[in-house]
Structure formats: C-alpha cells, structure tokens
Amino acid sequence: MASRIAFKPLGSLCFAPPRTNRSAAAAAATFGSPRASMASTKLETAKNPFSPREVHVQVTHSMPPQKIEIFKSLDDWAENNILVHLKPVEKCWQPQDFLPDPSSDGFHEEVKELRERAKEIPDDYFVCLVGDMVTEEALPTYQTMLNTLDGVRDETGASLTSWAIWTRAWTAEENRHGDLLNKYLYLTGRVDMRQIEKTIQYLIGSGMDPRTENSPYLGFIYTSFQERATFISHGNTARLAKEHGDLKLAQICGIIASDEKRHETAYTKIVEKLFEIDPDGTVLALADMMKKKISMPAHLMYDGHDDNLFEHFSTVAQRLGVYTAKDYADILEFLVVRWKVADLTGLSGEGKRAQDYVCTLAPRIRRLEERAQGRAKQKGTIPFSWIYGREVQL
Ligand SMILES: [Fe+2]
Ligand SMILES: [Fe+2]
Question: In this structure, are residues 268 and 354 in contact, taking their beta carbons and an 8 Å threshold?
C-alpha cells in the first residue's frame, strides 16, 4: 500500500522540474520558459551540505503488492526480449576508442589537434555539453533509482534474475558515456574541470526522486522517456558539433546517442509488454507519470554558485535546440504512438479517462509552450562557473 509521508499537491499542466528547496519562483518556472533570473544566491551549504534536495512529497510502494508477481513471472521473457538489447563487452566501443592514445608517440599532436578544433566551438555549446556530461556522471543515482523498483530490483548486488542482470549491464554501458565526455572536455582546456567536478559531487549527493514510487510501471515509463530524451539531446550535440566543424566530437556524441536509442528500445519494449498484460494499470501509470511531469534527471544540479543552475543550463539547451519543450511533447507523442495507447480497448472508466488525457496531452503542451514563447522576454546573459564565469546568452 502507498505510504504517503505528507499531503500530495495536485500537479498542474506544465512540465517544470519538481519543486526543490531553491526559490519558489525558480521552481515554478516551466522547462520551456525557465525564469531567467540574473540573481544567483548562494545556498547555505554549511548547514545543508548536500543541497539542493527534493522537497516534494515522497510516495513509496504505491503498486499493489500482488503485482510484483507479474515481474517475477516475466523473468524468462526479459531474458529473451530485453537482455538481447545489451551488447557484449567485447563488441562495445570504449571511451579510449575516441580519445588520443596516451601510449602513442602522436599523443601530444592529437591533443593539440583536439584543442584546435575545440577553439572553434562557442561557449554556449560547451555549457550544453557540460550539462549533458554532468547528467551522465550522476549514474549512481540512476542505478539506485532502478533498484528502488519492487519486483525487479537487484536484491543482492549480483542477483541472477534477468531484471538485475539488465540493470547492472545497463549501468555498465551507461558508465562509458560520462567517462568519454568527461575525458574529452578535460582535454579541450575550455572548461573549468574543478567547478564541473563539484557540480557532479553535489548532484550525486542530492540524489533524485523521479516519483516512480517503487513501481516498475512508473519506473519503466520514466526510463523510456529519459532514454529517448538523452538520445535526442546527444543527437543534437552531435549535429551542432558537425556544424562547428568538429567531426570527432560529432562522432563522440553520436556514438553515445546510439547507445541511448538501444536502451530506449529495451525500456519501451518492457512497457509495451505491460500494456499487453495489464492495459488498465499501465495507462493509469502513464497518465500518473505525465501529470507529475517527467523530471529531468539532473534537475537538482548545483555548482556551489548558481542557485538556478539547472534552469540556466536548460534555457541555453532550449535556445540552441539541444533539448527543448517541443522535444518533451514530441517524446510523449512518440511513446503514445509506440504503445498504441489510442487503440486500447476494454479499459475501466478511470482507464478511459487516463487514455484520453495522455492522447490529447502533447498538443496541449505544444500550445502552452507556443504561448509561453510568445510572452518570452529578452533573457540577458548569465555567467557559468563551468566556463570560468564567462557570460552566455540565455
Ligand atoms: Fe547515457
Ligand atoms: Fe541512457
């Protein structure tokens, strides 16, 4: 049964990250039109060393316990249908394949060339790439999140269930993403690694509650959404790197995007199976997740300086087209079509209402976003610690 720790506020139709202990105004900003405050207040880190933190109501174990059996009975199915989307380690790319080889005589020359190419890339692009890298580097948080899910968690740390094997191997594949971007960014000499490393430490310390309530229904809907979001975002940084003439960086972002696509395929297949077994429960979970809004995994990011760092990073990413409010609506629409939600039949009254809600949500989000864009004012510039305090247009 759900153990509700406190009153749960009703969500409104917007797609802001959940409220944190940062300013209420910042928390109320939508993802598509983040508040562009020039003020950056320093948090009281001495009293609150791991801030910012989630401040929304945290709900646990909302899935009826009998449904755990569904996931136990799907173990063989997962072995035959999900584990096949993993790549054997020997066939996987590794970060070193895309980086200068430190044992080669040409190492210094290769680094010099990498730095020459990086000189042509503007600061706002680096802000996006650093934000993406920081997001990837908080991987311990995402593995933890998967291991909160009832019926699929890795009970021992080396469990032999298909679900646990997937989670560990998925984590191992994902670990290459932050590693590659981190080493690349270090070699460019364009970014303040110490500030970035602090951001990563703060972010992992903050953790995150994506409001999946220990339910694999909610959890796998969340990961389906997020894998597609990262596929889009890394795909866009690849495209922009190419436009800036850095084909090697384009290749780096592109190869990461291709992993994300493979992971998206696996997670969306799990949810497809849940729609087949339990259409009512799954459509209710999808509507629930969308009402709560899909929070971005790094929404609690903080560098010790900027109280609204995530909003500022998101605004730059939106302006450059790396990840936008339109992408959010597009992902939702893609998933609704992928899972054939409109075609579901035999639903309960509540299920039908959830079906209507999710099937009409994407156009409503787009309309709200267009209106917000129309009202958007000139946003000014903001300094980012990640690039030595240089100012970037929001
Ligand atoms: Fe990733
Ligand atoms: Fe991913």
Answer: no
More confident residue, 205 or 46: 205
The answer to whether residues 253 and 235 touch, using CB atoms and an 8 Å cutoff, is: yes
Question: How many Å apart are CA 235 and CA 241, to the nearest integer?
Answer: 10
Tens digit of each residue's pLDDT (9 = 90 or more) over 180-190:
999 999 999 99
* Strand pairing class (3-4; 59-60): antiparallel
HSE, CB side, 13 Å, CA atoms: give it for residue 351: 15
- Is 263 a catalytic site residue? yes
Name the active-site residue from 54, 124, 132, 136: 136
Domains in the chain (CATH in brackets) are: 74-379+387-393 (1.10.620.20)
61 is catalytic: no
Tokens 């703060």 correspond to 202
Does the pLDDT of residue 199 top 60, yes or no? yes
Alpha-carbon distance of 166 to 197, in angstroms, equals: 28
Q: Report the C-alpha gap between 309 and 317 in whole angstroms.
A: 12
Other residues' Cβ atoms within 10 Å of the Cβ of residue 73? 11
* Centroid of ligand 1 to alpha carbon of 46 (angstroms): 32
Q: d(Cα 247, Cα 381) in Å, to the nearest integer?
A: 29
pLDDT tens sequence across 98-130: 999 999 999 999 999 999 999 999 999 999 999
What's the pTM?
A: 0.88
**Ramachandran angles phi, psi of 382, nearest 5°:** -145, 140
Does residue 174 have a known ligand-binding role?
yes
Q: How far is CA 199 from CA 125, 178, 186, 207, 283, in A?
A: 18, 13, 15, 12, 36
Between the CA of 354 and the centroid of ligand 1 the distance, in Å, is: 30
Among 25, 18, 11, 28, CA closest to 53? 18
Q: Quick check: 29 pLDDT over 60?
A: no
Nearest 5°: phi and psi at 298? -105, 25
